[in-house]
Specification:
2 copies of one chain form a homodimer. Chain A is built from 15 helices and 12 strands. In chain A, helix 5 (120-135) crosses helix 12 and helix 6 (150-165) packs across helix 11. Chain A has helices at residues 16-35, 48-53, 65-75, 98-110, 120-135, 150-165, 170-173, 192-200, 221-233, 256-266, 321-328, 362-372, 374-397, 423-440, 467-495; strands spanning 88-89, 143-147, 182-187, 208-211, 237-244, 269-273, 298-302, 314-318, 401-403, 411-416, 444-450, 453-459. With 496 residues, the first copy, chain A, is α/β, with parallel strands linked by helices. The longest helix of chain A is centred in the last third of the chain and has 29 residues, at 467-495. The interface between A and B is large, with 192 and 191 residues.
Chain lengths: 496, 496
Amino acid sequence: LNSQPSPEESLDPQDWDAFRDLAHHMLDDMLDYQQQVRERLVWQPVPAEVKAFLKRPLPQQPQSHQQVYQDFVENVLPYPMGNIHPRFWGWVMGNGTPFAAMAELLAATMNPNMGGGDHGANYVEIQVVDWLKEMFRYPAEASGLLVSGASMANLVGLTVARNTLAGYDIRQKGLRAGQRQMVLYASQEVHSCVHKAAELLGLGREALRLIPVKQNFEMDLAALERAIAADRADGFQPFCVVGTAGTVNTGALDDLQGIAEICEREGLWFHVDGAIGAVAILAPEVRGCVEGLQRSDSMALDLHKWMYMPFEAGCVLVRSEPAHRNAFSLTPEYLAHAERGLAAGNLWFSDYGLQLTRGFRALKVWMSLKEHGVQKFGRMIRQNMAQAQYLKQQVEASPRLEVMAPVPLNIVCFRYNPGGMDEQMLNRLNQELLIRLHESGIAVPSSTTLHDCYCLRAAITNHRSRREDFEILVQACERLGGEVVAEWLGKAALTR
Amino acid sequence: LNSQPSPEESLDPQDWDAFRDLAHHMLDDMLDYQQQVRERLVWQPVPAEVKAFLKRPLPQQPQSHQQVYQDFVENVLPYPMGNIHPRFWGWVMGNGTPFAAMAELLAATMNPNMGGGDHGANYVEIQVVDWLKEMFRYPAEASGLLVSGASMANLVGLTVARNTLAGYDIRQKGLRAGQRQMVLYASQEVHSCVHKAAELLGLGREALRLIPVKQNFEMDLAALERAIAADRADGFQPFCVVGTAGTVNTGALDDLQGIAEICEREGLWFHVDGAIGAVAILAPEVRGCVEGLQRSDSMALDLHKWMYMPFEAGCVLVRSEPAHRNAFSLTPEYLAHAERGLAAGNLWFSDYGLQLTRGFRALKVWMSLKEHGVQKFGRMIRQNMAQAQYLKQQVEASPRLEVMAPVPLNIVCFRYNPGGMDEQMLNRLNQELLIRLHESGIAVPSSTTLHDCYCLRAAITNHRSRREDFEILVQACERLGGEVVAEWLGKAALTR
């Protein structure tokens, strides 16, 4: 059939041999790009002419594969975010790996829809979820789903909590049919995606009670207990506590054992946002810091952060498979499952979340866990934590830098402080310093504000970083901070 | 720095040359796999030994790249879902293309986080969204976001509708603070993801009023108007009508002009689920069938369906950028935007949806639209619609097959009916026929149930299908249907 002439068109290449040549060329470029990443600047601004090129109208006519690739090479490839570089520590982002990038090619070639059914890719996802249950010490009968990231994983976990503990058919009747306003608890340091989830679920942001934190940015559990008691007295319906295993600001770890006990006593759902720090469980030397994680009812994970997977790779685990399924399952006639054939199989992932069509994100996780073995991930996590301590020491050793928060995990908040400046001036100085760091291309931390102090913030989820990279960061901060101060003093002298 | 010895480990290949050789070998395999797809069976069941292989515990130690790839080649690659094959028409799924698969490799190599900021990939997504606005005749100042698929796109659109029309700060206060129960409308044929969205948003499935359809499965607009009036009289708060541009069961197209007029008159948000049929707008000969689409307030699209992109590639468009932003924007201190540096730029995609971390799904769309030009997509869509009519004619011409619903778009519902069987028996017969079709590997339609009749259902969103493929399907149905009947008659004779 393949050679039969046909008047019909397809989107396949007309000249497969030429396409194959180009594809190999593209692959070599991509391997070079990863192999040589350390030799390049971390980040550079996107030039105006590139922005203009990317404003042209919708293409009506075809371009050659070569031309399209060339457009990519000239206008996109040179202006990366930078997070694959060894000196990128902004926000909390993994790097990806060359093997996982190849896995994405394999996944897009097979291009299965992971909604459900009897095909190989679905068994890969089942295995990956089983492996994650094993890694995070969940029972074998627990349930899980790969999702886009922790925003979605938290939303799924909180939806299961809401639907399970409402006490009536909330899926059918909605929130207004309940007797009381449902409320949930998290620390003031909880990630904004939990705020967004409370909004989306119709609870409203006021229903998310933000519990104060202690000096080390952990949730104050005495305050949590008082808040629950006050809400019960006031006629609210507490249903869930969100514990954070690694806050986004400072990497603070809530006392998960303590929260688990409160939730058991109070009959509340215990959800853990483990996006940032849950994987510390893989490093034997440090896993005590997330003890209690395994007692949660649901857990959000982000494998594209500290498991170094390319985007997107989040996961939600739910201890009770029936609760998970009952919160989402809905099988219309056109999705009827079958006894045999492609529509066979008991596991339809679409019964466990929002997406019906789902991509094969499991493959990169599967191939990466096999490639390295989980023990190596434990070593890498430990390595990043040691690097955080090393950076902290370097900052402490510098006369002009200061550490701004405890470093329990892999996040270091610090600032440049030459002395003699008020807080407002220091904030402006460090804002300018961060921008110059970015513009220099030397290193990319990001920022946060702690107790009104603007800080540089390095979140070390980077398998390519080495100790010397942190020395380079500290030296650059000292030099660029000094330059800004000198300029400001110069300007002040001129205007005096 | 690259050559400096270091005690620190990374996840990069230790032997780049060997890795490069393997990567090229993988690429050749993937190109062969796509080039030769027509020569293989569409689908085959996953053997028990493969399922057993995919149940082994979490790997502790590393395996070689070769071994991991070999495991993939032996246990995953031979058992595809089948949707890249020319004779796959199950559910509604695109195929992907070789060039888009390469785009996924490029995207995973750069691995940017598309949350926001000043880097090349973000401008690619802005351009793709602009192109989609142009394709679907939305104003230039409209807003949009690439998402995992139409389930998410519908959820985002309905969230904007809910938050915009609540009449109070629903994000802060939640649904219970409203004066009245908010309700929305869609036809009985609306996709299940809209049911799920109503549940998730806390409205409850009862708040989704399912309007009856006419004989051709389009929403009955007179019934819609009656339902809105009755709800207003009963103290409910109507806020949105969901029109469907191509239902999942039969491809029926709601009267979008009519719905637009009702929404304008009633002050309701007009959301279109265009996942299945909105792209008909690209084919000049047929675009009249989705006229009115451009009058909607928001629109859900699925580029991994009838735009043939690999999974995942959905999109939501929202006419009012401020409404879109106001429904989702939330910028905590650790995401502070900046004047210069990487955190610069006005467009933070995380302000427009649920995801904060977002993958570079824009690249495959960008490269594919440049590769083919939008006019070719129009021709492909037209080609699939012509193939649907051809299949309908073939079914009509067969003495033992019958068409079960109108074919306005690209979906054909039909069944095997040898005569003399009651409906229950016909349902069982066609269930068995579908399974045997799958097991034969000849073709993969899926199924649905219309007016209690189980039907085979071919949704033609396949750029590789040719006319002869539909002839093969019809012949296989006749042959396998006859075999089932003969077996059943034989068994009946034996037991008599």
